[in-house]
Design goal:
The chain has two domains: 169 residues, Quinone Oxidoreductase, Chain A, domain 1; 135 residues, NAD(P)-binding Rossmann-like Domain (Rossmann fold, 3-Layer(aba) Sandwich), CATH 3.40.50.720. α8 links the parallel β14 and β15. Helices cover 29% and strands 27% of the residues. The protein is of the alpha/beta class and 331 residues long. α3 crosses α4 and α6 packs parallel to α7.
Length: 331
């Protein structure tokens, strides 16, 4: 089968090659991938900045497809089922945090950027019927991360003020869409006026271009936010502290700008603020996220679709931050 693997001897650090399919273990299924999507961790792997990198590993965490073969302990009746893949593995028994053995498909284990993938039966779920293959493939990692950030950690309630930073990326897209479905008053920030214009079409009430020096003042004039979902951290964290309401919470799932050089601890304790980290989610979170998407008929925003042969162009677009929604790859 054809697959996109990490090969840092190549100029692009990617290679589309023929690889041998894995044999099925008794509790596994083979899924024919109809669509897969990129996440920033894929680009971090390509850059060599992700932990436990292994050359030759098939990249990709997100995918959707059809079960075409099953192991000895799996009923043959499920062959032909349309499924979406949960990329989390070995979360463990603690709902508050993942086990030390936790990992995500696509590194160090083979991922979804292949014509087929073998996964345990408990990693596949029925594809929501209202989603296309491309939309289903866009959902798993980013949808799970956003849902846990909003609900398990953020406990967002209808009528509360929510700010999602970096609108246009996958998790931010879902956090905004899920927040709207939950009845929150959603605002977003971005460095792109074009993306902010698109956000308004979704029903976003306030948009902020964080490259403008007065955005913090604008947000404070609005009244601030009960919950802020962020992936950047770095120098922007103190801005988020400034726009959080007293008793508010900042939930962050990344640090693309690195660690903050300093942090105003006095504002945190005097404002009764909570800073909460989050990564992916439990199987229960994933199941709840899928049910939520089905109930509210949420459609992921797709930016562009590439073939496997155009993988370098797809990765380059993600690296440049040009996407509005998810980037899809199809075999």
């Amino acid at each position: 089968m054809k697959a996109i693997v990490l090969d840092r001897n190549k100029e692009s650090s990617l290679d589309l090659i023929e690889v041998q399919e894995n044999k099925l273990q008794p509790n596994e299924v083979r899924v024919s991938i109809k669509a897969a999507s990129l996440n920033h961790r894929d680009e971090w792997c390509r850059k060599g900045k992700y932990p436990n990198l292994k050359e030759g590993v098939i990249l990709g965490s997100d995918g959707a497809g059809i079960i075409i073969e099953v192991g000895d302990n799996v009923p043959k009746s499920i062959i032909g089922t349309e499924v979406i893949i949960n990329p989390s593995r070995n979360w463990g028994d603690n709902p508050k945090a993942q086990h030390k053995d936790f990992e995500i498909l696509g590194m160090p284990s083979n991922g979804t950027l292949a014509e087929t993938i073998v996964v345990p039966l408990d990693r596949v779920y029925d594809k929501p019927s209202h989603l296309s293959w491309q939309e289903a493939a866009a959902l798993p990692l980013a949808g799970l991360t956003a849902y846990r950030a909003l609900t398990f950690h953020g406990n967002i309630q209808a009528g509360q003020d929510l700010l999602v930073t970096g609108f246009g990326g996958g998790v931010a897209q879902f956090a905004a869409q899920f927040g709207l479905a939950l009845g929150a008053k959603v605002s977003v920030s971005s460095s792109s006026d074009k993306k902010l214009e698109q956000a308004k079409k979704l029903g976003i009430i306030n948009t902020y271009n964080y490259t403008q020096t007065d955005w913090v003042g604008q947000a404070q004039k609005y009244g601030g936010f009960d919950l802020i979902i962020d992936s950047a951290s770095g120098r922007t964290l103190n801005d988020l502290i400034d726009v959080a309401k007293p008793g508010g919470k900042i939930v962050f799932y990344g640090a693309t700008l690195g660690n903050p050089e300093s942090i105003d601890a006095r504002k945190i304790f005097w404002g009764q603020l909570t800073l909460q980290g989050t990564t992916m989610g439990t199987d229960m979170d994933f199941e709840a996220m899928l049910e939520f998407v089905k109930k509210h008929k949420i459609h992921p925003i797709i930016d562009e679709v590439f073939s496997f042969g155009e993988a370098s162009e797809a990765f380059d677009k993600m690296r440049a931050g040009q996407q509005m929604g998810k980037i899809i790859l199809v075999p």
